[in-house]
Amino acid sequence: MALKTKFKDREFGVGDTVRVIQKVKEGDKERKQAFEGLVIGIKGREENKTFTVRRVGVGQIGIERIFPVNTPSLENVEVVKSGTEGVRRAKLYYTRYTSKKSIDEIYSRAARRGKKQEVKKTKKPKKTSKPSKKK
């Protein structure tokens, strides 16, 4: 179970919003097609590695596509929005049953939690010294 993978020196992981650009050949013509969504899972090892991208289409219908990492038809994978640091799940299948609004709420809550932790790390503890007793 991988949390991150690389595609042509670009690293992305579970929880990131990505735009996948793929070459599509129709007859003798070739065009590029983009698919943008949330990475909900990464499976496999080495040359058999695949990642699943999910987006919500027209009429609130969920669309999922599975892309092999080592396919010649994949042209580019761009990270549109980076996921939260320290994702707690390798597979985000629970997002299939939640609304987009609640998913955004989860991300904003995690971002706030991350900012609080950064502030706590940067603050230095106060040195408490005992007052000296004068005789």
Structure description:
By secondary structure, the protein is an alpha+beta fold. It has one domain (4-121): SH3 type barrels, CATH 2.30.30. Helix content is 17%, strand content 41%. It has one helix and seven strands; from the N terminus they run βββββββα. It has one helix at 100-122, and strands at residues 4-7, 10-13, 17-26, 29-43, 50-56, 62-68, 74-81. It has a five-stranded antiparallel β-sheet, with no helix packed on it. It has a two-stranded antiparallel sheet with strand order 1-2. The longest helix is centred in the last third of the chain and has 23 residues, at 100-122. The chain starts with a strand and ends in a 13-residue tail after the last helix.
User: Radius of gyration in whole Å, from Cα?
Assistant: 22 Å
Q: Uncertain runs with pLDDT below 50, 5 residues or more?
A: none
The CATH topology corresponds to SH3 type barrels
Largest sheet: 5 strands, antiparallel
Question: Mean of the pLDDT scores?
Answer: 81
Order of SSEs, N→C? EEEEEEEH
Q: How are the strands of the biggest sheet laid out side by side?
A: 6-5-4-3-7
- Indicate the proportion of strand residues: 35-45%
Number of helices, where a helix is a run of at least 4 consecutive DSSP H or I residues: 1
Kindly state the number of beta strands.
7
Helical percent range?
Answer: 10-25%
Total domain units: 1
Described by the principal axes of the CA atoms, the overall outline is: elongated
- How far apart, in Å, are the first and last alpha carbons? 67 Å
